[in-house]
Amino acid sequence: MDRPTVDVYERRAVEWVSRRQPVDLEPAEQFAAWAGPRRAGGALVDLGCGPGWHSASLGAGPVVAIDAAQAMLDEVPRFAPAALRVRADLAHLPVRPGSLGAAFASKSYVHLARAEVPLALAELHRSLAVGSPAEITVFPGRLEHGALPDDDFPGRRFSTWDETLLRDVVEGAGFALDDLRHEPPRGKGEGTFRVRATRARTLADTVGPAMRLLVVGLNPSVYAADAGVGFARPGNRFWPAALAAGLVDRDRDPWHALRVNGVGMTDLVKRATARADELSTDEYRHGVERLGRLIAWLRPRVLCVVGLAGWRAAVDRRARPGRQARTLAGVPVYLVGSTSGLNAHHDLTAITAGFRAALDIADAPREP
Prior knowledge:
- The protein is an alpha/beta fold.
- It folds into two domains: 3-199, Vaccinia Virus protein VP39 (Rossmann fold); 213-363, Uracil-DNA Glycosylase, subunit E (3-Layer(aba) Sandwich), CATH 3.40.470.
- It has helices at 3-19, 26-35, 70-79, 117-127, 163-172, 222-227, 238-245, 254-259, 281-298, 309-314, 348-363; strands at residues 43-47, 63-67, 84-87, 100-106, 133-138, 175-183, 192-199, 213-217, 263-267, 302-306, 322-323, 333-336.
- Strands 3-2-1-4-5-7-6 form a seven-stranded mixed β-sheet, with helices on both faces. A five-stranded mixed β-sheet has the order 9-8-10-12-11, sandwiched between helices.
- Helix 1 (3-19) runs parallel beside helix 3 and helix 7 (238-245) packs across helix 11.
């Protein structure tokens, strides 16, 4: 969470409550009505709860009020005395995987830099049970982690969103988008984007800024989706080859791969299946379009596509392993054969060599 913004809320929480009396609790009440029948068990979490105005309106059952500012949490008993208060960062939720049943976040992710939001939503995906509903409210616009004009609590930083990018990030984080609407402003400003989504049985992207390399799988297997790690099935050669090539230094840990090794992970198609041949050409093409927008935004040094079928279906039907003649959004593309243990055409040695070659491209000096 943005430390300068948290510091504003720590210093001025009492003033905030006195000046910003709750004027619109209807979104929380509407979410409670929508989410109730869809909850997959577990607590409902109010992310960035502030003084707890919405926490009290989120319906029956346990509500966990999470905020990064202790001074805000100190106000919660006045408005939501039954809520369990937890001080935590949106990007590091202190809960067991799959333990939450629903999530409500009103204007809290707005305080993260845009490029940090995919990983924060991946953390939310990890924390929610499959099928759990979520609602996230952000602001439309093009502001990148800066001050809003005429902010009456100066020192806070905000990021605002383009609708297409917001859709891509929610899908990439492993959520099925139920609704995205532009709510009109109440007074000044451009209103809000109100996102309703369901935690899908899939993997979330682990992506962020300054990636050396972005690994792109075809789509998650159901096994990998349930394990929470790509290429997780015993016998898959991805992780042994990635370790041998120096791509990563920790086995089966995509979070560490991104944060320490600068290696992100995504999929051409987010829908998990038992077999890759269940996917359609249209799904692959949609995936390449989303991928193109993702890398145009985050600018990894190299795109490493694992498995040929999706690239051949959507981009180049004659594609072979190795560096591709065409780039995607100006980023070099390197194709590696499928790492599945069923693929006899590419053994561990060949896959390892492919990863090393992709790394060589990533680490080559950049042209000035």
